[in-house]
Sequence to fold (287 residues):
Amino acid sequence: MTTGAPFGQRLGQAMQDLGPLCAGIDPHRGLVEEWGLTYDLAGVEKFALTCVEALGGEVAAIKPQSAFFEVFGSRGLALLERVIDGARELGSIVILDVKRGDIGSTMGAYAEAFLGADAVAPPDAITVSPYLGYESLRPAIDLAVANDRGVFALCLTSNPEGASVQHARKDERSVAASIAEGAAQDNASARESGHLGHVGLVVGATVGHAVQDLGLDLAATSAPILAPGIGAQGATVSDLTSVFGPALPQVLASSSRSILRAGPEMPLIRDKARAEAEEIRTILGPR
Fold:
């Protein structure tokens, strides 16, 4: 069962309508307890569903972090399914942060679990790890296309440890550049039609001049660019211009803790998200 329009087109429209902001739902212990909730399944349920109600339909995308639900076993996964379904029903694109990466039939099984026509509570897109080789992602990419969904491949991540792998070079080409080139090839038809593609890239807002230094032509990829790192990780909205340059129209800035710390009152969470979306829209310009 497809969703009716290619992922890149749907995401681009959401970014135009609601602003280029992706709000994370990360119910880790510290945030849950800051809200005055107990860190158990009931507390995480209250936290997560409050976020869905506050943010669904208010931001272009919502990004639940799977690990914070998986820690509660099958009951946590059942809650995650409710979060995904609820956010989509309210009108937000859902990007599930699972960072899956494997080879052959195992990657195919991951793809079926999250992107398949029979997936339970499928998100609109998932994050994937290409560090077994870009082509190891093929089962997920192909299934995403077939079902009008998307993937976001880790390219230049916001954590400083990532540079040891992503900046490495072979034949003068960095690992990050090879991932961006793979995305560009997969997004060729979208580029020709003037839309965002189904293969996105994760490029942190904290990477400074690495995009330029490593020779990445992000604008040529037609990839939606998920840009974490704003707020708690140290990047500011104004950093987006210097980091992404001509690729700014493709950027979907991701913010989690700075929005969630406005809780637990739903109006305050919603107002914080709206303010961040407007600030980002002002910097990035109209879509």
Observations:
- The two ends are 29 Å apart (CA to CA).
- The beta strands are 21-25, 61-64, 93-100, 125-128, 150-156, 169-170, 173-174, 199-203, 225-227, 251-255.
